[in-house]
Amino acid sequence: MHSDRASTRDPEPTADPATGTTTGVESAEQLAEALAATGYLADDGLAMVGYLALRMNRPLLLEGEPGTGKTALGEALAEALRVPMIRLQCYEGIDASQALYDWDFPRQILHLRAVEAARSLVEEIDVEEVERSLFDERFLLARPVLEALRASPAVLLVDEIDRADDEFEAFLLEVLSTYQVTIPEFGTVRAATPPIVVLTSNRTREVHDALKRRCLYHWIEHPGLAREVRIVRSRLPEVSARLAEQVAAAVHRMRDTVDLLKPPGVSETLDWARALHELGKWELDVGTAAATLGSVLKYREDAERVRDSLDRLLGS
Ligand SMILES: Nc1ncnc2c1ncn2[C@@H]1O[C@H](COP(=O)(O)OP(=O)(O)OP(=O)(O)O)[C@@H](O)[C@H]1O
Ligand SMILES: [Mg+2]
Fold it and tell me: Does pTM top 0.70 for this prediction?
Protein backbone atom coordinates (compact mmCIF):
# COMPACT_ATOMS: atom_id res chain seq x y z
CA MET A 1 0.00 0.00 0.00
CA HIS A 2 1.25 3.45 -0.75
CA SER A 3 0.19 6.90 0.36
CA ASP A 4 0.73 9.88 -1.93
CA ARG A 5 0.78 12.28 1.00
CA ALA A 6 3.90 10.74 2.49
CA SER A 7 6.63 11.03 -0.05
CA THR A 8 8.45 14.28 -0.67
CA ARG A 9 11.77 12.78 -1.66
CA ASP A 10 13.37 10.70 -4.33
CA PRO A 11 11.04 7.70 -4.33
CA GLU A 12 13.72 5.09 -4.95
CA PRO A 13 14.18 3.31 -1.63
CA THR A 14 17.20 1.29 -0.63
CA ALA A 15 15.18 -0.68 1.89
CA ASP A 16 14.14 -4.02 0.49
CA PRO A 17 10.35 -4.44 0.76
CA ALA A 18 10.55 -8.21 0.28
CA THR A 19 12.77 -9.02 3.24
CA GLY A 20 12.21 -5.97 5.37
CA THR A 21 15.95 -5.57 5.68
CA THR A 22 17.89 -2.56 4.61
CA THR A 23 20.15 -3.30 1.75
CA GLY A 24 23.10 -1.26 0.67
CA VAL A 25 24.28 -0.65 4.21
CA GLU A 26 26.57 -3.48 5.19
CA SER A 27 28.37 -2.10 8.22
CA ALA A 28 28.37 0.65 10.80
CA GLU A 29 31.16 2.36 8.87
CA GLN A 30 29.06 2.33 5.71
CA LEU A 31 26.13 3.83 7.56
CA ALA A 32 28.39 6.57 8.95
CA GLU A 33 29.57 7.30 5.42
CA ALA A 34 26.03 7.43 4.03
CA LEU A 35 25.00 9.79 6.84
CA ALA A 36 28.09 11.94 6.28
CA ALA A 37 27.10 12.30 2.63
CA THR A 38 23.93 14.05 3.85
CA GLY A 39 25.98 16.33 6.15
CA TYR A 40 25.34 14.37 9.37
CA LEU A 41 28.49 13.29 11.18
CA ALA A 42 27.77 10.41 13.56
CA ASP A 43 30.31 9.13 16.07
CA ASP A 44 31.22 5.43 16.17
CA GLY A 45 28.73 4.57 18.91
CA LEU A 46 25.78 6.13 17.10
CA ALA A 47 26.74 4.60 13.76
CA MET A 48 26.94 1.15 15.37
CA VAL A 49 23.60 1.33 17.17
CA GLY A 50 21.97 2.82 14.06
CA TYR A 51 23.33 0.01 11.93
CA LEU A 52 22.13 -2.62 14.40
CA ALA A 53 18.67 -1.02 14.53
CA LEU A 54 18.48 -1.37 10.74
CA ARG A 55 19.75 -4.94 10.72
CA MET A 56 17.57 -6.08 13.60
CA ASN A 57 14.49 -4.13 12.53
CA ARG A 58 14.26 -2.49 15.92
CA PRO A 59 13.22 1.05 16.84
CA LEU A 60 16.08 3.31 17.92
CA LEU A 61 15.57 5.41 21.04
CA LEU A 62 17.85 8.45 21.20
CA GLU A 63 18.28 10.52 24.31
CA GLY A 64 20.64 13.40 24.94
CA GLU A 65 21.02 17.07 25.73
CA PRO A 66 19.08 19.52 23.54
CA GLY A 67 20.68 20.30 20.20
CA THR A 68 22.85 17.20 19.99
CA GLY A 69 21.43 15.93 16.71
CA LYS A 70 18.67 13.53 17.79
CA THR A 71 16.01 14.83 15.41
CA ALA A 72 18.59 15.44 12.68
CA LEU A 73 19.59 11.76 12.83
CA GLY A 74 16.08 10.71 11.79
CA GLU A 75 16.14 13.16 8.90
CA ALA A 76 19.64 12.14 7.83
CA LEU A 77 18.76 8.44 7.98
CA ALA A 78 15.80 8.92 5.64
CA GLU A 79 17.90 10.96 3.25
CA ALA A 80 20.77 8.46 3.35
CA LEU A 81 18.46 5.50 2.69
CA ARG A 82 16.43 7.49 0.19
CA VAL A 83 13.11 6.74 1.81
CA PRO A 84 10.44 9.22 2.91
CA MET A 85 10.58 10.54 6.46
CA ILE A 86 7.36 10.89 8.36
CA ARG A 87 7.50 12.83 11.58
CA LEU A 88 5.25 12.51 14.57
CA GLN A 89 5.87 15.45 16.89
CA CYS A 90 4.72 14.49 20.38
CA TYR A 91 3.25 16.97 22.85
CA GLU A 92 1.33 16.92 26.08
CA GLY A 93 -2.12 15.50 25.51
CA ILE A 94 -1.42 13.94 22.10
CA ASP A 95 -3.68 10.96 21.51
CA ALA A 96 -4.15 8.17 19.02
CA SER A 97 -6.42 10.20 16.72
CA GLN A 98 -3.63 12.72 16.17
CA ALA A 99 -1.06 10.02 15.64
CA LEU A 100 -3.00 7.42 13.71
CA TYR A 101 -6.04 8.57 11.78
CA ASP A 102 -9.15 10.67 11.90
CA TRP A 103 -12.27 10.96 9.79
CA ASP A 104 -12.76 14.07 7.71
CA PHE A 105 -15.99 15.14 9.38
CA PRO A 106 -16.78 18.22 7.25
CA ARG A 107 -16.39 16.18 4.07
CA GLN A 108 -18.55 13.40 5.49
CA ILE A 109 -21.29 15.97 6.19
CA LEU A 110 -21.01 17.34 2.67
CA HIS A 111 -21.29 13.81 1.35
CA LEU A 112 -24.47 13.25 3.39
CA ARG A 113 -25.94 16.49 2.05
CA ALA A 114 -25.18 15.36 -1.49
CA VAL A 115 -26.90 12.04 -0.81
CA GLU A 116 -29.88 13.87 0.61
CA ALA A 117 -30.09 16.12 -2.44
CA ALA A 118 -30.01 13.05 -4.66
CA ARG A 119 -32.92 11.56 -2.73
CA SER A 120 -35.41 13.46 -4.86
CA LEU A 121 -34.00 11.63 -7.89
CA VAL A 122 -33.68 8.13 -6.44
CA GLU A 123 -36.69 6.31 -5.16
CA GLU A 124 -35.19 4.20 -2.45
CA ILE A 125 -32.12 4.84 -0.39
CA ASP A 126 -30.17 2.07 1.33
CA VAL A 127 -29.34 3.61 4.71
CA GLU A 128 -26.69 1.02 5.57
CA GLU A 129 -25.02 1.59 2.25
CA VAL A 130 -24.97 5.36 2.88
CA GLU A 131 -23.46 4.74 6.31
CA ARG A 132 -20.79 2.49 4.89
CA SER A 133 -19.92 5.06 2.26
CA LEU A 134 -19.10 7.54 5.02
CA PHE A 135 -16.13 5.45 6.07
CA ASP A 136 -14.58 5.28 2.69
CA GLU A 137 -10.86 5.76 2.02
CA ARG A 138 -11.46 9.28 0.71
CA PHE A 139 -12.73 10.44 4.10
CA LEU A 140 -9.86 8.87 6.01
CA LEU A 141 -7.25 11.34 7.24
CA ALA A 142 -4.03 9.40 7.70
CA ARG A 143 -1.91 10.79 10.53
CA PRO A 144 1.84 10.11 10.76
CA VAL A 145 1.79 6.55 12.15
CA LEU A 146 -0.74 5.30 9.60
CA GLU A 147 1.04 7.24 6.89
CA ALA A 148 4.33 5.55 7.80
CA LEU A 149 2.78 2.06 7.84
CA ARG A 150 1.40 2.67 4.37
CA ALA A 151 4.45 4.38 2.91
CA SER A 152 7.04 2.01 4.37
CA PRO A 153 9.92 1.52 3.62
CA ALA A 154 10.07 4.84 5.40
CA VAL A 155 11.57 6.42 8.48
CA LEU A 156 9.05 7.18 11.20
CA LEU A 157 10.49 9.83 13.49
CA VAL A 158 8.65 9.93 16.82
CA ASP A 159 10.06 13.17 18.13
CA GLU A 160 10.13 14.08 21.82
CA ILE A 161 8.23 11.07 23.12
CA ASP A 162 8.87 12.26 26.70
CA ARG A 163 6.33 15.05 26.14
CA ALA A 164 3.50 12.56 25.55
CA ASP A 165 1.79 10.77 28.43
CA ASP A 166 1.75 7.14 29.56
CA GLU A 167 -1.34 6.11 27.60
CA PHE A 168 0.16 7.40 24.41
CA GLU A 169 3.35 5.50 25.07
CA ALA A 170 1.31 2.32 25.58
CA PHE A 171 -0.46 2.92 22.28
CA LEU A 172 2.84 3.41 20.52
CA LEU A 173 4.26 0.28 22.06
CA GLU A 174 1.39 -1.70 20.60
CA VAL A 175 1.90 -0.25 17.12
CA LEU A 176 5.65 -0.86 17.29
CA SER A 177 5.10 -4.47 18.33
CA THR A 178 2.87 -5.39 15.42
CA TYR A 179 3.38 -2.67 12.79
CA GLN A 180 -0.30 -2.86 12.10
CA VAL A 181 -3.39 -0.97 13.15
CA THR A 182 -7.04 -1.86 13.02
CA ILE A 183 -9.55 0.81 12.12
CA PRO A 184 -12.94 -0.57 13.16
CA GLU A 185 -14.95 0.91 10.27
CA PHE A 186 -12.26 0.31 7.72
CA GLY A 187 -10.12 -2.74 8.39
CA THR A 188 -6.54 -3.58 9.26
CA VAL A 189 -3.59 -1.73 7.79
CA ARG A 190 -0.33 -3.62 7.97
CA ALA A 191 3.07 -2.36 6.88
CA ALA A 192 4.49 -4.43 4.03
CA THR A 193 7.91 -3.55 5.44
CA PRO A 194 8.26 -2.40 9.03
CA PRO A 195 9.19 1.27 9.02
CA ILE A 196 12.55 2.32 10.44
CA VAL A 197 11.54 3.97 13.69
CA VAL A 198 13.59 6.63 15.46
CA LEU A 199 12.30 7.90 18.80
CA THR A 200 13.84 10.89 20.52
CA SER A 201 13.56 12.06 24.11
CA ASN A 202 14.95 15.00 26.07
CA ARG A 203 14.41 13.00 29.23
CA THR A 204 12.00 15.42 30.86
CA ARG A 205 10.60 12.13 32.16
CA GLU A 206 11.75 8.53 31.90
CA VAL A 207 10.41 6.52 29.00
CA HIS A 208 8.85 3.31 30.34
CA ASP A 209 10.84 0.10 30.47
CA ALA A 210 8.37 -1.74 28.24
CA LEU A 211 8.99 0.70 25.40
CA LYS A 212 12.73 0.78 26.08
CA ARG A 213 12.85 -3.00 25.91
CA ARG A 214 11.46 -2.85 22.39
CA CYS A 215 14.13 -0.37 21.27
CA LEU A 216 17.88 -0.13 20.90
CA TYR A 217 19.14 2.78 22.94
CA HIS A 218 21.78 5.46 22.54
CA TRP A 219 22.65 8.55 24.57
CA ILE A 220 24.02 11.24 22.26
CA GLU A 221 26.82 13.24 23.91
CA HIS A 222 27.92 16.66 22.80
CA PRO A 223 30.44 16.03 20.03
CA GLY A 224 34.17 16.17 20.69
CA LEU A 225 35.95 19.31 19.51
CA ALA A 226 37.29 17.93 16.23
CA ARG A 227 33.89 16.53 15.25
CA GLU A 228 32.08 19.72 16.16
CA VAL A 229 34.46 21.68 13.92
CA ARG A 230 33.70 19.20 11.13
CA ILE A 231 29.96 19.59 11.76
CA VAL A 232 30.24 23.36 11.39
CA ARG A 233 32.29 22.93 8.22
CA SER A 234 29.82 20.44 6.84
CA ARG A 235 26.66 22.41 7.67
CA LEU A 236 28.11 25.86 6.94
CA PRO A 237 30.78 25.47 4.26
CA GLU A 238 30.78 29.23 3.74
CA VAL A 239 32.22 29.82 7.24
CA SER A 240 36.03 30.10 7.33
CA ALA A 241 37.98 27.17 8.80
CA ARG A 242 39.57 29.48 11.37
CA LEU A 243 36.20 30.85 12.53
CA ALA A 244 34.72 27.33 12.75
CA GLU A 245 37.62 26.21 14.95
CA GLN A 246 37.46 29.26 17.20
CA VAL A 247 33.70 29.07 17.67
CA ALA A 248 33.73 25.35 18.41
CA ALA A 249 36.65 25.74 20.83
CA ALA A 250 34.94 28.61 22.67
CA VAL A 251 31.69 26.64 22.96
CA HIS A 252 33.62 23.65 24.31
CA ARG A 253 35.28 25.78 26.97
CA MET A 254 31.87 27.21 27.90
CA ARG A 255 30.44 23.72 28.31
CA ASP A 256 33.42 22.39 30.23
CA THR A 257 34.44 25.28 32.46
CA VAL A 258 31.47 27.58 33.07
CA ASP A 259 28.56 26.57 35.23
CA LEU A 260 25.68 27.28 32.83
CA LEU A 261 21.94 26.90 33.22
CA LYS A 262 21.71 25.73 29.62
CA PRO A 263 24.99 24.66 28.02
CA PRO A 264 24.94 25.37 24.27
CA GLY A 265 24.21 22.47 21.92
CA VAL A 266 25.43 21.97 18.36
CA SER A 267 22.54 24.13 17.11
CA GLU A 268 23.90 27.07 19.12
CA THR A 269 27.43 26.49 17.80
CA LEU A 270 26.00 26.59 14.29
CA ASP A 271 23.94 29.69 15.01
CA TRP A 272 26.94 31.49 16.45
CA ALA A 273 29.19 30.61 13.53
CA ARG A 274 26.47 31.71 11.13
CA ALA A 275 25.89 34.99 12.96
CA LEU A 276 29.60 35.81 12.86
CA HIS A 277 29.77 34.92 9.21
CA GLU A 278 26.81 37.19 8.49
CA LEU A 279 28.80 40.00 10.09
CA GLY A 280 31.59 39.33 7.63
CA LYS A 281 33.92 37.85 10.26
CA TRP A 282 36.72 35.42 9.45
CA GLU A 283 37.96 35.35 13.02
CA LEU A 284 36.47 35.64 16.47
CA ASP A 285 37.45 38.59 18.66
CA VAL A 286 36.26 39.43 22.16
CA GLY A 287 34.22 42.47 21.11
CA THR A 288 32.24 40.64 18.44
CA ALA A 289 31.85 37.59 20.67
CA ALA A 290 30.32 39.76 23.39
CA ALA A 291 27.99 41.44 20.89
CA THR A 292 26.76 38.13 19.43
CA LEU A 293 26.39 36.05 22.61
CA GLY A 294 22.60 36.03 22.13
CA SER A 295 22.98 33.48 19.37
CA VAL A 296 24.69 30.99 21.67
CA LEU A 297 23.34 31.60 25.19
CA LYS A 298 19.67 32.01 25.94
CA TYR A 299 19.71 32.83 29.66
CA ARG A 300 20.69 36.23 31.01
CA GLU A 301 22.65 34.64 33.89
CA ASP A 302 24.62 32.46 31.46
CA ALA A 303 25.44 35.43 29.22
CA GLU A 304 26.67 37.43 32.23
CA ARG A 305 28.88 34.61 33.45
CA VAL A 306 30.39 34.06 30.02
CA ARG A 307 30.86 37.76 29.30
CA ASP A 308 33.01 38.04 32.42
CA SER A 309 35.43 35.40 31.19
CA LEU A 310 35.39 35.89 27.43
CA ASP A 311 39.14 36.54 27.24
CA ARG A 312 39.88 33.15 28.71
CA LEU A 313 37.15 31.36 26.72
CA LEU A 314 38.51 32.66 23.44
CA GLY A 315 41.98 31.56 24.47
CA SER A 316 43.37 35.08 24.02
N1 LIG B 1 26.32 14.98 14.31
C2 LIG B 1 25.81 16.02 13.61
N3 LIG B 1 26.11 16.20 12.32
C4 LIG B 1 25.60 17.23 11.62
N5 LIG B 1 24.74 18.14 12.13
C6 LIG B 1 24.40 18.00 13.42
C7 LIG B 1 24.92 16.94 14.24
N8 LIG B 1 24.41 17.07 15.48
C9 LIG B 1 23.62 18.15 15.44
N10 LIG B 1 23.61 18.71 14.22
C11 LIG B 1 22.85 19.91 13.81
O12 LIG B 1 22.57 20.63 14.97
C13 LIG B 1 21.24 21.14 14.94
C14 LIG B 1 20.45 20.61 16.11
O15 LIG B 1 20.18 19.26 15.93
P16 LIG B 1 18.79 18.62 16.36
O17 LIG B 1 17.69 19.58 16.18
O18 LIG B 1 18.70 17.31 15.68
O19 LIG B 1 19.04 18.42 17.91
P20 LIG B 1 18.09 17.67 18.94
O21 LIG B 1 19.00 16.76 19.72
O22 LIG B 1 16.93 17.07 18.26
O23 LIG B 1 17.69 18.89 19.85
P24 LIG B 1 16.33 19.08 20.72
O25 LIG B 1 16.49 18.15 21.89
O26 LIG B 1 16.40 20.51 21.12
O27 LIG B 1 15.19 18.76 19.84
C28 LIG B 1 20.66 20.75 13.59
O29 LIG B 1 20.84 21.82 12.72
C30 LIG B 1 21.51 19.56 13.19
O31 LIG B 1 21.56 19.47 11.81
MG1 LIG C 1 14.90 17.48 18.40
Answer: yes
